Queue: 3 jobs
Job 1
Amino acid sequence: MIGKLLQKELKLCLHPTSFLLPLLVALILTPNYPYPVSYFYLCLAVFFICLTGRENHDITYSLTLPVAKADLVTARFLLVMLIEWAQLALAGLFIWLHGILLPQPNAAGMDANLALIGEGFFCFGLFHLVFFPSYYKNVDKVGISFLKGAAALFVLILVEIVLCYALPLYRNILDTPDPLNLGAKLLFCAVGLLFYLSSTWVAWRLSQKRFQQLDIR
Amino acid sequence: MNSILTVKNLCKSYPSFRLDNVSFSLEEGKITGFIGRNGAGKTTTLHSLLSFVHPDSGSIRFWDREYDEHELEIKQRLGFVSAGMSFYAKKKLRQITDVTRPFYHAWNEEAYRKYLSLFSLEEEKTPDALSNGMKIKYMLALALSHGAELLILDEPTSGLDPLSREELLEIFLELANQGKTILFSTHITSDLEKTADNILYLSRGRLLADDSLPGFLAAYRLCEYAEGQVPHEWEGRLIGPGRTKNGFSALLQASERKDFPLPCRQPSLEEIMIHLEKED
């Protein structure tokens, strides 16, 4: 059933910006840019998916189908994760290209290196944790939920930029060109992945619980 | 007759509204009209049936099965059509159908093609490009193609021109002839006079009547009178008196008709509803 719902998500719920905004990860090829901001654009795409879903009565349509309410939440999470992983794969490609084309340090935060993927995991994990439980508490107020998610995301991005200048772990080890300190960066990615998976799991369960209790009027 | 749907003591409270112990059942192959003014609780009741909203208490059984325990199985046999909703306005009907089809075990492609042709629906069109009547027909085509035995229709004829309404009503009658059960919420009572077998009348969250249409109509008489014409002892027995162009009108229990000194006539469903609402 989840497979059929994912098909529904892909065929009926994807907004055109779901393809365009994640491509802005190409900003990694821009010199001196706060690269984690490109992860925000994907979160904006998630907002547009949920917003157009509301305008298209997606949830009402889905609830008339012979599916469990909780599975609708699962399918939406899978769709978003699919886009996120596609963007992270693209980020990997652009980080590699950046190393070849623009091999100079970034003056606006983290260098374009492997640790940026780890930052992506932290960004998406935090966004899931703030946005989805709020969204599934009231699917009509998608804008409010997005504002909360975006605010949390920008605080995280700001902290990460500050850490690149203030914390030796960031300044001397993570904020360095590849392949320097590759082991530490891989470890950072693994910690990020762990955070991403655990926060997504918490967000998913909380969202299912809240959506189950929600009255659709 | 088999009961397709049995609702018992359904309650749901909102800060400014309460659905109060609503109980009814639907008979197989019958059209049941669900009437009441805007805000009476019709949509809340229908949404409770489909678990869009969670009732505070009460039980809902479809085909003698508890909804909560057999939700997916029940939804395979249900069709829900609402005039107020247009799904995926910019997607082609073909895309919506392609997504919908795999969810239903009993999907009948031949029936789907038949209804597309019968309703003159073009799959390459988007819901945006359809009139309200055509949108309803598309939703009906989807429901009928997966073999829905019970159709729950939320104000399907609202906002349609008289001809489109008539066309839809004919379709409903034909579906009932084929054995489909229809629960049809509306405030356009004339539509029900043409189609309904039974009437559920909801007012301010309470079910005031659950009767056959002839039985419901036969329970009242309408009297029209000028000021001062009604004897004083009858004034308190008139139901929902109100002004008309030529004086006043009010309902009277049909059982009291023979003692009433003024002429009365059979009221329409709309007249009954208006006077009962005034009285309430």
Note: Chain B has two domains: 3-216, 220-279.
Job 2
Amino acid sequence: MKVLYFAWLRQRVGVGEETVNPPADVATAGQLLDWLAAKSAGHAEALKNRSLVRIAINQEFAGLDAPVKTGDEIALFPPVTGG
Amino acid sequence: MIRVQTEDFDVGRELAALTDGRTDIGGLASFVGLVRDFVEPGGGTGDGNASIRAMTLEHYPGMTEKMLAEIEAEASRRWPLQASLVIHRHGRLLPGDRIVLVACAAAHREDAIQACSFLIDWLKTKAPFWKLEDTREGERWVAAKESDDLLAERWLKK
């Protein structure tokens, strides 16, 4: 699956996009965040405060319990500040 | 209509284009968002206390257009609109630059004004844009405001 990072999450992770292949027991967005946080110090720092991380699955807002699967586009970003 | 672009827009021309050739529109409401030069709170008015030198807007191409289209469609479901327009810029902007234009046209003013207010309130909490301020003290990501969440929530259907 493809994971996109925006704003300060992108800066902390160090890349804006990466392709990942999590193990089969990673079935929800929350489990994916736990798995990603273990990838590097930057990932851990970006995902430390879960209350500041918003999730979109295939360009739709989703919660931590939402299922994730191979081929999904997952985006992780801070609360939005446009307008 | 939704447009996400780096270029500036001409407010007068955009508003005129929404109503040109139409005789069924009785009211046109619009909102223009601009880059401010001061950091909240405290503030300033361009009197030398200005601390923001530039603002860079990042967005999520694809989801941005999709969310704006969904919000615009929701406005049309709630109010009888004859036309609507959302233009949102991204990239590096300077104080005084236009960021966003929202406009709604309806037969009657109250529908146009309410729909315009709804559109900008939901855009601010749902469209994936992020503001990075370039200040004298360095770069700073703008934090989402609880007051914006409250403004958006007043449009939730009870």
Note: Strands of chain A lie at 2-5, 17-19, 54-57, 60-62, 73-77.
Job 3
Amino acid sequence: MFISCNEANHNCDKSQYNEASLWEKIKLNIHLIYCKACRKYSKNNSKLTQVINNSELEYLKTSEKDALKKNFEEELSKNN
Amino acid sequence: MSNHQINPNKWIDLYSDYLFNYTITRVKDRDTAQDLVQDTFFAGLKSMKNFKGEASERTWLISILKRKIIDHYRKINSKKGKAEVRINFNSDTDNEGDWIEQRVADPFDKTAENTLENTELGLAIHNCMSKLPEKQAQIFKMKTILGYETETICNELNITASNLWVIIHRARTALASCLEKNWF
């Protein structure tokens, strides 16, 4: 029922990725009732998730990056 | 004289994500963006001797990339047939939107200001992320932005799940405080 702050943070991180189970979420929320520090962390954490979703940040996939690297290295060796 | 050194061997690791992100907000197409980034690196390699060291490598590459993006738009606009612009009140063949009320801009849709803000925000996040230790940044990107499964990342990088969550937690805390200083 009552969990440590460490575990609460862990559950909080997980829930940001929708990977926390129902029981984990319940435990987290019980913890948040009486722990001010974790409430703050939890608030910031969901803000961060929201901001990142809004920013539409895009990155190269690892495979795409590798392809880019390979092409570039070929070009590099040609030049030297 | 030159304050900045140039070292193309590390370009891909250091700048490809930044350049890609810069491009994707401007061309909206992954494949094109990838090609443009690659062209930029090649062009940078060719004109390396012109690098005077007045700006950082990243700024220099971005200035090449800007030219490439402009060229890209020039090219697609000069293709035959594209120059002819046809404006129809109702260009689609389907019947949706026959009423003019359905065609006016939706005020709750994204505005230009909104988009601009998002672009800047993306770069702010990127700057904060580049301050993280390399491993943290890599895992955080894979998990949060590329949306890989926990298991996939664990297998690829050979770490345990709890290890991953600790790294994610550290990255999130650092990012939140960095963004708090620079953005909110």
Note: Helices of chain A lie at 5-16, 22-34, 36-55, 62-79.
